[in-house]
Task: inverse folding
C-alpha cells in the first residue's frame, strides 16, 4: 500500500499539481488492470467537474470510475461480502417509535423518561438524528446521550439486533476494521474534495485507502472559520497515512474576491468601503419568489453574454419553489444548464386518493372520509348511495351526538330506524376497513394487504411485502396505528427526480446546485439565491419534539466528547488527531462554523462576478416580510460598508426592477387566451354593472321556469339572507360542503337536542296529533327523562367502540342543553291559557293564495302548536292555533314596538325582509290556508313567557307586499346575491364555486332594483 497525501490552499492549486499528474499516470494503466481505479468525490456534481476538466486538458478517463461515498459503501459491502443490512431510514424511524411506545407501555416513575418517550413516539426522526451524530463519532448513545433518552435507544438497539439491521456508521467502521487485513481490491484510488464537514465518512474513506495498492488524497488547508475541525481532519489523515506534502499556493487570480470578503473593522476601513464599493458584487431583491427567480435568470443571461463567463453557478438552499421557478425560466429561454437539484415528479403511487386514505385511517372523521370517497368512490359499499346522501347522513348523525368519530357514527346510524339511508351508510362504513389502534406488525401488514386488494392497489401491496420481508416477524412489540401509518406513508413513495431536457446538461456552463455542493468547485460567476432568514443558512438547532434540556445536554456532551478524543499527533506541537476508532461529532455549533467556512471558500473561488438575491415577502403570506439572512447582510456590509436596513432592501428591490426593465432580454410570447376566458370577462363586467338588476351571471334565470320553485319555510327565510346558496341548491343541485368547522357546532347540537327532548313531551301516539296539555311537573319530568336517556345511549355507543366514558367536554355541553331544555319546559308548563298541544307538526305542501292567480308554495315543520280549545279531531287543526318556535339563544319578542300601527307594520316588515322569524310568518300563512280562523305566533326562549301571542294573523296579513315579493322570486327564479360573501363576524359556509367579492354597496343597489318589494323594509327610517 502506497499512500500520498497533499494539502493545498485552493482547488485550482491541487488540480494542476496533484490531480493532472495522477490522471496522466492512471490513464496509462487503468484500462488494462483487472483491479478498478477509483476517483472518490463528495457529490456527483464534483464528478461532472472532474470529467469536464479532463476533457479540457485532453486527457481520457478510460478505466477510471468516479464514485460518491454512498456508491462506494455499496460497492465495498458487495466486494467484502458483509452480511449486515443497512435498513432504510424509514425502518429505523419505525423501530425507534416502537421502542418509545414500549417504554410508555412498561411505565416508569421517571417523568423525564416518559415525556421523552411520548415525544419520540410522535416524532422519532429527531432522536434518530441525535443517534446518528454520536454514532458517526464512534460513540454509543447509551453511554454518551442524555439520560432520559437512553432507555429508548437501548430498546431500539435490541430491536435492531432482532431484525439483523445495522446502522450505517457501524457498517463503515466494520469495513474499516476488515480493510486493514484485507488483500487490496483496487489498483489506484484518488480522493479529493473532503474536509472537516465530512467527518461521518472518515472510516469509509480510510477503509478504501487501506484497500488500494496506491492511493492519493488531496486535502484543503483549514481556514479560521472552522480551523479546529479541519486541522484535526488533516492531522488524522497524517497520523494514519503519513505527512502531507504541501502544494505551493498560486498567486491570486485577477479579480479574486478574497480581500473584498474580509469584514472592514476600523471606522476608516468602513468609510473607505462605503465610498468605494467593491465592483463585481451585485444585489438583487424581488418582491416574492417569482420576482426573485426572474431577476436571477435575467442576471444569468447577462453573465452568459460576457466573454469572461466560463462557469456560472446558481446556488440555492434546497429544492423548492425558487429552484423550480429558476429552472423553468431557464428552460423557457432555452438556456442549457445542469439542474443539480431537479424536482420530484409523482410516480404510480402518488395518486390523490393515497394521502386521503392515510388521513382517514389516522383520523377517521367525516370530512376526511368524504375527501377520500370523492377521490376513490366506493358507492358499491354503500348500496349505491350518492356521495351527497352519504355525507348528508353522516352530518345528521354527527349533529345528533357532536362527536366526530366514524366508529361512533356507525353505532348512531345503525340504531336509526327512521331514515332509510342510515342502515346503508352504517353497513358501508363497516365494510370500509379501518386499521386497529394497536396491533402487531404482521397483523397490520395482513390487514393492509386486504385493504389494498379491496381498492385494487396491487402494486402497493407488492412493494409493501418487499420492504417488510425478512424482518416484520421479528418485532416483538405491538405497534400503534399512528406509527405504522407514518411508516407506510414514508416507504410507499414513487417520487422520481425529473429535469427539463434543457436542464440535463452536466457539462454546460450553467449549474444549479445546493450551497453544500459548491465549495470545492471553481467559478467565474456565481449567483447566491434565496439568501433570506431561514432559507440559507438553514437553522441548525431545531429540537423538534425532543425537550430543549435534552438537546442542550446533547450539544454540550458533543463538545466534551470531541475534546476527549483529540490528542497530539506524531508530528508534535500543533499536530492534532483523533483516537483510533473515533471521529469528531458534528453538532449545531460545528455545523454553523462549517457552513460559514463553506460559504467563504465558495465566494473566494469566484474570479469575475458575484450576485446575491433575496425576497421581500413570503410567497404564501405576502403581508409577512422576510428578513435577509446573515450571509446576505455580511456580504452587503463587505461590499458596500453599510448595514442592510428595511429601507435598503426596498431600495434594492426598486433598483432591481429598473435594471430588469432597462434590459433587452427576450421574453417568451404570452399564452393565447381561449374564448372561455373572454366569456369570464363578460360575466365579471356584468356582475359589476351599475344600475342594472341581477342577471344570468348573478344567480338569476334569463327566462321563467315551467314550474315554480317550491321551498320550505326555512329555505324561504334563508333565501333573503343568502339567496345565492339557496338558488344553487334548488336549481343546480350544488351546495356548500359542510366541513364541520364553522365554529357553531355546539349551538346547532344544543338546538337539536333541546328540540328533540321538548318534542317528545306530548307523548302523542302519532305525528300531527293534538293531546291534552300535560301538567308542568309532567313536562319537566318527561324532558329530563329524554335528556338522560340520550346521555345513556351515547355512553353505550362509546362503550361499544371502546372509548369508555363520555368526554368531559361533551358532558359539560349536554348539561348546558339540559338546563336550557328545563327552562323552556318550565315556561311551557306555565302557559295556563292553553289546554291542548301538538309537537313537531308537519306542514304539508300548501299553495297559499295571495291574490287572484298568485300562490306561494310553502311546507315545513312547526316546533309546537298550542290551543285553548279542543280540536274537532286530534289530527285536525283547531280554529285558533298558537304557533310557538323554540329558541335556545337570546332572542327578542316578535312584537314590534311603536305608537302607531303603521310603525309596527314597517318594523315588522324590516325584520321579515332581513330573514328574521320569516319562517313563522310563512307557517301562519300556511295554517290560514288550511282553515285557521285566527292564530297567534310566538318565540319561546329561556327569558320569554307564553302569556299571550306576540303576533296575530292581522300582523301577517299586513305584509302582503312582502309575500308578493317572495312570489315573484318563486316564479322568475331571480334571486341574486345579498349579504357579505365572507362575514368577518359570523360563521358561514363558503360558496361551492370560485366567487370574487363584489362591493357591498353595489350588491345592495342591485338587490333594491331586482326586489323592490323589500326596499322599504330594508330602510332605517323607523329606527
Result:
Amino acid at each position: 500500500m502506497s499512500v500520498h497525501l497533499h494539502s493545498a490552499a485552493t482547488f485550482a492549486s491541487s488540480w494542476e499539481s496533484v490531480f493532472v499528474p495522477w490522471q496522466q499516470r492512471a490513464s496509462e494503466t487503468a484500462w488494462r488492470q483487472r483491479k478498478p481505479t477509483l476517483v472518490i468525490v463528495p457529490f456527483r456534481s464534483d464528478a461532472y467537474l472532474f470529467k469536464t476538466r479532463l476533457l479540457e486538458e485532453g486527457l481520457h478517463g478510460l478505466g477510471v470510475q468516479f464514485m460518491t461515498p454512498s456508491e462506494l459503501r455499496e460497492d465495498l459491502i458487495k466486494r467484502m461480502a458483509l452480511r449486515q443490512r443497512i435498513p432504510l431510514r424509514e425502518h429505523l424511524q419505525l423501530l425507534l417509535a416502537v421502542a418509545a411506545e414500549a417504554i410508555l407501555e412498561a411505565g416508569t416513575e421517571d417523568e423525564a423518561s416518559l415525556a421523552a418517550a411520548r415525544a419520540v413516539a410522535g416524532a422519532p426522526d429527531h432522536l434518530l438524528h441525535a443517534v446518528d451524530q454520536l454514532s458517526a463519532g464512534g460513540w454509543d448513545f447509551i453511554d454518551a446521550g442524555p439520560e432520559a433518552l437512553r432507555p429508548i435507544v437501548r430498546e431500539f438497539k435490541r430491536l435492531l439486533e432482532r431484525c439483523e439491521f445495522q446502522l450505517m456508521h457501524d457498517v463503515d467502521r466494520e469495513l474499516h476494521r476488515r480493510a486493514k487485513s484485507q488483500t487490496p481490491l483496487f489498483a489506484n484510488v484518488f480522493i479529493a474534495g473532503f474536509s472537516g464537514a465530512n467527518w461521518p465518512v472518515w472510516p469509509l474513506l480510510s477503509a478504501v485507502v487501506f484497500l488500494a495498492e496506491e492511493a492519493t488524497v488531496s486535502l484543503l488547508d483549514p481556514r479560521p472559520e472552522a480551523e479546529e475541525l479541519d486541522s484535526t481532519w488533516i492531522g488524522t489523515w497524517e497520523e494514519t497515512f503519513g505527512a502531507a506534502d504541501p502544494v505551493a499556493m498560486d498567486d491570486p487570480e485577477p479579480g479574486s474576491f478574497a480581500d473584498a470578503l474580509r469584514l472592514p473593522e476600523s471606522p476608516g476601513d468602513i468609510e473607505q468601503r462605503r465610498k468605494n464599493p467593491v465592483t463585481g458584487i451585485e444585489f438583487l431583491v424581488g418582491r416574492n419568489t417569482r420576482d426573485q427567480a426572474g431577476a436571477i435568470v435575467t442576471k444569468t443571461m447577462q453573465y452568459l453574454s460576457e466573454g469572461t463567463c466560463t462557469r456560472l453557478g446558481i446556488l440555492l438552499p434546497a429544492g423548492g419553489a425558487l429552484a423550480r421557478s429558476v429552472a423553468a425560466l431557464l428552460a423557457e429561454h432555452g438556456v442549457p444548464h445542469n439542474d443539480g437539484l431537479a424536482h420530484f415528479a409523482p410516480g404510480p403511487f402518488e395518486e390523490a386518493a393515497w394521502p386521503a386514505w392515510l388521513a382517514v385511517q389516522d383520523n377517521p372523521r367525516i370530512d376526511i372520509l368524504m375527501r377520500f370517497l370523492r377521490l376513490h368512490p366506493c358507492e358499491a359499499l354503500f348500496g349505491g348511495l350518492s356521495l351527497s346522501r352519504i355525507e348528508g347522513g353522516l352530518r345528521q348523525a354527527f349533529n345528533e351526538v357532536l362527536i366526530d368519530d366514524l366508529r361512533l357514527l356507525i353505532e348512531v346510524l345503525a340504531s336509526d330506524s327512521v331514515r332509510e339511508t342510515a342502515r346503508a351508510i352504517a353497513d358501508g362504513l363497516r365494510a370500509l376497513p379501518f386499521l386497529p389502534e394497536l396491533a402487531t406488525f404482521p397483523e397490520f401488514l395482513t390487514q393492509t394487504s386486504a385493504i389494498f386488494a379491496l381498492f385494487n392497489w396491487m402494486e402497493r401491496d407488492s412493494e409493501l411485502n418487499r420492504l417488510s420481508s425478512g424482518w416484520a416477524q421479528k418485532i416483538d412489540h405491538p405497534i400503534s396505528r399512528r406509527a405504522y401509518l407514518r411508516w407506510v406513508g414514508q416507504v410507499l413513495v414513487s417520487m422520481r427526480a425529473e429535469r427539463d431536457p434543457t436542464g440535463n446538461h452536466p457539462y454546460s456552463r450553467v449549474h444549479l446546485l445546493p450551497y453544500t455542493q459548491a465549495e470545492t468547485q471553481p467559478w467565474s460567476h456565481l449567483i447566491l439565491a434565496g439568501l433570506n432568514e431561514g432559507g440559507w443558512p438553514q437553522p441548525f438547532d431545531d429540537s423538534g419534539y425532543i425537550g430543549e434540556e435534552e438537546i442542550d445536554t446533547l450539544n454540550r456532551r458533543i463538545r466534551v466528547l470531541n475534546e476527549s478524543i483529540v490528542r497530539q499527533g506524531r508530528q508534535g506541537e500543533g499536530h492534532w488527531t483523533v483516537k483510533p476508532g473515533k471521529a469528531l461529532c458534528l453538532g449545531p455549533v460545528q455545523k454553523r462554523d462549517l457552513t460559514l467556512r463553506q460559504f467563504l471558500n465558495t465566494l473566494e473561488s469566484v474570479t469575475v462576478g458575484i450576485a446575491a438575491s433575496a425576497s421581500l415577502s413570503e410567497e404564501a403570506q405576502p403581508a409577512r416580510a422576510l428578513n435577509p439572512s446573515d450571509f446576505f447582510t455580511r456580504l452587503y456590509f463587505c461590499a458596500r460598508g453599510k448595514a442592510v436596513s428595511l429601507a435598503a432592501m426596498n431600495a434594492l428591490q426598486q433598483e432591481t426592477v429598473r435594471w430588469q426593465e432597462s434590459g433587452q432580454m427576450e421574453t417568451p410570447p404570452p399564452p393565447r387566451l381561449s374564448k372561455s376566458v373572454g366569456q369570464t370577462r363578460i360575466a365579471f363586467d356584468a356582475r359589476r354593472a351599475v344600475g342594472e338588476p341581477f342577471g344570468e351571471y348573478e344567480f338569476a334565470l334569463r327566462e321563467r321556469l315551467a314550474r315554480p320553485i317550491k321551498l320550505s319555510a326555512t329555505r324561504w327565510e334563508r333565501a333573503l339572507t343568502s339567496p345565492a346558496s339557496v338558488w344553487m341548491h334548488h336549481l343546480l343541485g350544488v351546495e356548500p360542503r359542510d366541513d364541520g368547522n364553522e365554529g357553531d357546532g355546539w349551538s346547532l347540537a344544543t338546538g337539536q337536542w333541546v328540540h328533540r327532548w321538548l318534542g317528545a313531551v306530548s307523548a302523542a301516539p302519532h305525528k300531527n296529533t293534538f293531546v291534552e296539555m300535560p301538567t308542568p311537573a309532567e313536562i319537566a319530568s318527561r324532558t329530563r327523562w329524554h335528556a338522560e336517556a340520550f346521555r345513556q345511549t351515547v355512553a353505550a355507543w362509546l362503550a361499544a367502540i371502546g372509548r369508555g366514558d363520555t368526554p368531559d367536554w361533551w358532558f359539560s355541553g349536554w348539561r348546558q342543553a339540559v338546563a336550557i331544555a328545563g327552562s323552556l319546559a318550565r315556561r311551557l308548563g306555565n302557559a295556563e291559557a292553553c289546554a291542548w298541544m301538538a309537537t313537531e307538526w308537519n306542514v304539508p305542501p300548501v299553495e297559499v293564495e295571495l291574490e287572484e292567480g298568485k300562490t306561494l308554495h310553502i311546507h315545513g315543520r312547526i316546533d309546537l302548536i298550542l290551543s285553548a280549545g279542543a280540536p274537532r279531531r286530534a289530527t285536525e287543526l283547531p280554529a285558533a292555533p298558537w304557533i310557538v318556535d323554540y329558541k335556545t339563544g337570546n332572542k327578542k319578542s316578535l312584537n314590534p314596538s311603536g305608537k302607531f300601527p303603521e310603525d309596527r307594520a314597517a318594523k315588522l316588515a324590516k325584520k321579515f325582509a332581513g330573514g328574521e322569524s320569516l319562517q313563522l310568518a310563512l307557517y301562519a300563512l300556511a295554517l290560514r290556508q288550511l282553515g285557521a280562523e285566527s292564530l297567534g305566533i310566538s318565540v319561546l326562549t329561556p327569558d320569554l313567557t307564553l302569556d299571550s301571542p306576540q303576533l296575530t294573523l292581522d300582523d301577517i296579513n299586513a305584509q302582503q307586499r312582502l309575500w308578493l315579493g317572495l312570489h315573484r322570486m318563486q316564479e322568475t327564479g331571480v334571486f341574486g346575491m345579498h349579504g357579505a360573501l365572507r362575514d368577518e363576524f359570523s360563521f358561514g359556509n363558503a360558496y361551492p364555486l370560485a366567487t370574487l367579492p363584489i362591493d357591498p354597496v353595489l350588491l345592495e343597489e342591485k338587490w333594491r332594483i331586482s326586489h323592490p318589494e323589500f326596499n322599504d323594509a330594508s330602510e332605517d327610517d323607523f329606527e
Remarks:
- The longest strand covers residues 836-851.
- The mean pLDDT is 87.
